[in-house]
Structure formats: C-alpha cells, structure tokens
Amino acid sequence: MVDTVEIAGRPIGADEPCLVVAEIGINHNGDIGLGRKLIAAAAAAGCDAVKFQKRTVDVVYTPDELDRPRESPFGTTNGELKRGLEFDVDGFRAIDEYCRLLDTVWFASCWDEESVDFIEQFDPPCYKIASASLTDDDLLRHHRKYGRPIVLSTGMSDVREIDHAVDVLGTDNLILLHATSTYPSELEELNLRAIVTLRERYGVPVGYSGHDVGLATTLAARTLGACMVERHITLDRAMWGSDQAASVEPAGFQRMVKDIRAIEAALGDGIKVVYESEIPVREKLRRVDVHRRSAET
Q1: Looking at beta carbons, which pairs linking 57-63 to residues 24 or more positions away fall under 8 Å?
Q2: pLDDT of 152-204, one tens digit each?
C-alpha cells in the first residue's frame, strides 16, 4: 500500500493533514480580476491550494457542439461561451504571479494533451485529471510523460473503468478522488463509504471531490480518511455560471477548513489511554472501592 504522495513538498495521505483545495475551475467567468479575488478568498480561508481548468476548445469539443445555440455573456453559441471562459498564456502568468505573491499552491485539470503541455511551462506541483477524462487512455499516458503526481477523479465511472485507468497510470504518485458527477449532487448518491473501498482496492491515498450543497458531507469524508478534499469556490452562489450553485462561498470555506483541522486534532492515533486531564475527574467521580479494585488489577 502507498502511504503518501508528496505534493508541493508535503506528504498527502490518510494519516497526514488533509490537503484542502479550492476548485476555482471556470467560476472566474473569464475575468482575471475575479480569478484573483477567488484566489485571495481561498488563501484567506486557509485553503492549501487552488485549482483551475484548461481546455483547447477546438480539440475537446466537436464543431457541432461549438455551434450549438447557447446564450451567455460571451455570445449566442456554445463555442463563444467556451472560448470566453479560457485564459491564455498571459492570464495564467497572472494567476501564477498572484499565487506566488500569496504563497498559494495552484494546479489545473487539463482536458487534452495540448493543455497539459501548456500548463507544464508553469512547473505545476501535480496534475488533476477530471472524471470526464478517466477513460481517455492517451490523455492519461500523456500526463505521465512529465512524471508529476496525478490526482484522478472517479465520478461517473464504474469499478471496471477505474481498474483500467489505474492500470494505465500505475499506482506510483497517484491519488484517487471519490466523486459523484452531478451539480449539485443528491445526498443519497454521495456514497462516501466508497472512499474506504477505493483505498482498500487500489492501495493509494484517496480523497473527496464534492459537488453537493453544504459542508457536513465533506467533513464526514475527512473523518473517513480522505487525504484531500476539493470543493468549488465562489464569491456568491447566485453569480452567473454553471458551477456556482454547487460551490462554497468564502465564509463557508473558512468554516470548513477550521472544522477539518478540528477533526484532525480530535481523531488521534486510535490507542486508548487515560489522559492526565482525566485523572482528577476519575478521582472525584468514581466510587472509592471500585477505583481501588481497578488500580489493584
């Protein structure tokens, strides 16, 4: 079993502090200023990293899909929307500079080989592979070309498909994320116990990528041993954008990070002991004769 994977100089594993990732994704709406605000909000909330997405639009989508009518602030077709949401090299340089200024780790999920090559110039600490790309063998192999840690989401995938993806990638420097790919997800479809199932089946660190409403389930995922949690971040869930409604606002992120750290402090090592702080209470509350028999045995 692989105990840990190192990302940005820190070990990631079930017995290590959880890596909390704020998924900015496309919630920046193509606006680098909004992107900076989201990075700043994530850093202020105590997140360990932020994540973006990168696509080569004409590779990822078919011409028919790009021509499909779709109203957005960018125009009247799906292609205009998709192109409007993509940052160019200057945009990602601005992201890189701002994250360095705030001492915040950033990485991206790349949806095609050209996007992987593009992001590589920024020396990312790892790559994220989206659930939609889990069955794309060529893309999986292309990610491995650079020898960086891989974080693979497993939403919309059955065990047979995950088995194959893990076989293609190998288990070295691999983290799996349990996920349900609906936005937002229904509680009854989260199946958080799959975190344990995946860890036992593949012997790699397993985290959780949540798209549900609320924070309790993400905290439960950490309690079940999730080594990484990823939630979408937004400044306002009512903002325009397809992922905003399944996102967490800054105050929620701050509360979530605080509660995750409290859970980690409370979990302990599993060895049952009597703490020094308990001894005065024991002396006060236990019947004397019971206490003496317990001490003698």
Answers
A1: 57/82, 57/83, 57/86, 59/112, 59/114, 60/111, 60/112
A2: 999 999 999 999 999 999 999 999 999 999 989 999 999 999 999 999 999 99
User: Phi and psi dihedrals of 152, rounded to 5?
Assistant: -115, 120
Output phi, psi for 117, to 5 deg: -60, -35
Q: Is residue 280 part of a domain?
A: no
Tokens standing for 90?
């200057």
Q: Which residue has the tokens 């036992």?
A: 200
Q: Indicate whether 258 belongs to any domain.
A: yes
Q: Is residue 192 part of a domain?
A: yes
Q: What does the pLDDT read at residue 3?
A: 83
Domain span holding position 223:
5-271
Domain tally, the chain: 1
Tokens standing for residue 19 = 């890596």
Assign residue 48 the CATH number of its domain: 3.20.20.70
**Residue 84 token pair:** 């409007």
Contact residues for 72 (Cβ-Cβ < 8 A; gap 6+) = 80, 81, 84
What is the rounded average pLDDT of the residues 206-215?
A: 95
With cut-offs at 50, 70 and 90, classify the pLDDT of residue 282: very high
